[in-house]
Amino acid sequence: MNLSFHRKAVNAVMLCLTGVCTAVAVGLLFFILGYLFVQGGFSLNLDFFTKLPAPVGEMGGGMANALIGSAKVLLLATCIGVPIGFLAGIYLAEYAGGAYASIIRFVTDLLNGVPSIIIGIFVYTMVIANGGGFSTYAGGLALSIMMIPIALRSTEEFLRSVPGSLREGAMALGATKSRTIASVVVPAAIRGLISGMMLNLARVAGETAPLLFTAYGNQFWSPGWKQPTATLPAMVYAYAVSPYPDWHRQAWAAGFVLLTMVLLINVTARTIVSSGFSHKQK
Amino acid sequence: MATSATTPQMARPQGRASFLSRAFSADSLARVVAFSAATCILVITALLVYELWSHSAISRAQFGLKFLHTSTWDPVHDDFGALPFIYGTVMTAFLGLLIAVPFGVGAAIFLAELAPPKLSDAMTFLIELLAAVPSVIFGLIGILVLVPLLSKVVPPIRDAFQGHPPVFFSGSFIGVSILSAGVVLSVMVAPYIISVSREVLLAVPRDLREAALALGATRWETTWQVVVPFARRGIMGSVFLALARALGETMAVTMVVGNTPRISASILAPGDSMASVIASQFSEAIGNLYPSALIELGLVLFGITIILNGAARLLIIATGGNAAK
User: Fold this and answer.
1) Which of B23, B111, B136 sits opposite A233 (nearest CB)?
2) Which residues contact A114 (CB under 8 A, 6 or more apart)?
3) What ipTM was estimated for this complex?
4) A41, A238, B106, B269: which sits with the fewest CB atoms below 10 Å from its CB?
5) Which of B34, B103, B114 comes nearest A25 by C-beta?
6) Residue A233: which of A212, A263, A249 has the closest Cα?
């Protein structure tokens, strides 16, 4: 009887504790969101979106150049990283087999696990140390290297979830392999592919470390692709570690905008997958 | 071929052979394009290793193995030893895991074993969103919220030891410290542990649970003595993944760790990690030896994360195979 009571007590206490762990984890998300929402929301104003950063010592100013800079860097990264990852994913899912595919899969996981700061060093030694200079395109290149492995894995995964009977049907109608892939397999997986690319974008949009010595930073507009540029995550970093309260206020505003963007893309992507793709994913 | 490409109408009467040959060439072209994209990844990774290796050559030649076990970091006199950063990296990651593993595994057990499926899915969705929060945001909250908070909370705890605090919890505390970095890291890696461990626990066969319950075990005993041991390798794998991420984490650590290249026994002292010293010093590193030493640090970090990632994947695959049987 005594033992049984002890066992029941342990059972109840431990099960409650696991619930508490979950509540804490979820609570932290709401704390972060809430805190940023309050701090960032109050700090945000129209100037943030339209003005250049104010010089040290002056109040006000905005981060319009960083918003544009981030958009350019991400655009470039997507244009380079997504096609390479997508095509390589097609190769793995539709063409390859055997040792070569395993090697590529292994190396992709390896590249995916490389700390982002090392990608930054890599692009620095490749581009900037060779006379390229800090620039928008170097930043885009660094982020594109981060996008390739993720794009590859998500493409492969979603193409593999397309039933083989669709491929056989297309082949039986006389379509070539490339025609089958382009007209049947990819359209069948299109929702998953798009959401995969969105998640990919959301992940690199917040990356700061690879941009520190590639895109560098800039107090002014950065016309074209060959000049250093401010980016939103790098601004959050620079402003948060500064000693000025007004800069902290702007760091909150920038962090709020960044997090809102990242989470919006994330939630949209996940909704796309779960709304139309569930019958294939499950 | 040439005529059929320029004037498509002419190609029709030629019939089957021409169609096939055209199809063949377009098809093999598609294959070649996809193949080169895949090969691109091998080239990029090989280049990355080569660049890290060749650009750290000066430092490797100068210091050799001494680089890994001396603790002077003196850019002025060009004397570089990586030990403070290796120590800081290991300590912050260890502290992060010390907090995150019990919480993460606890939450994973709740989500996999106890929560109703709908609640579990909703909670997992939220926890995966937590994983999507950029690391610079964690750094922002770390430096502007957590550090001021800790500098209020920690000194009273330390003083409660009445002058004899344990050596790892002693000394002056200014907020930025190994401890702060560990706390921030624990929040960042917990989502990984939770979502991977949950998957692994869900893959444990139902029969095992039913058998244990039928033998009269309580819910907790079933979970702790049957389900968790069965999934332990997968859970270990999730911990390794989390560790690899904690070691490579840059921004959040840089912002709260204090950027001081010193080895202190106390976790209340400021320190520095490999990734964060690269982030904070690389753009001002001048000369030949200084950048080269930082790149060698990158090489060391690269090696460690590669080994950990490989081990994590092997463990998760091993459990997956186990559970499938």
Assistant:
1) B136
2) B48, B248, B302, B305, B306
3) 0.91
4) A41
5) B103
6) A212
Closest CA to B255 of A131, A239, A126: A239
Q: Are A148 and A85 in contact (CB under 8 A)?
A: yes
Does B12 or B47 have the greater pLDDT score?
A: B47
A167: closest CA of chain B, how far (Å): 15
Give B24's pLDDT tier (boundaries 50, 70, 90).
low
The better pLDDT of the pair A236, B286 is held by A236
Q: What is the C-alpha separation between A71 and A67, in angstroms, rounded?
A: 6
Contact yes or no for A115 and B313 at CB 8 A: no
Q: At B73, which helix (H) or strand (E)?
A: strand B73-74
Contacts A92 to B, Cβ<8 Å:
38
Does the beta carbon of B96 lie under 8 angstroms from any beta carbon of chain A?
Answer: no
- pLDDT tens figures, A95-137: 987 889 989 998 998 899 899 999 999 999 999 888 888 999 9
Contact B133 A32 (CB under 8 A): yes
Chain A closest-CA separation from residue B95 CA (Å): 17
Cβ atoms within 10 A of the Cβ of B234, count? 25
Q: Is A251 helix (H, G, I), strand (E, B) or coil?
A: helix
Inter-chain CB proximity B136 and A212 less than 8 Å: no
3-state secondary structure B37-63: HHHHHHHHHHHHHHHHHHHCHHHHHHH
What's the gap in Å between the CA of B31 and the closest CA on chain A?
7
Chain A within 8 Å of B43 (Cβ-Cβ)? no
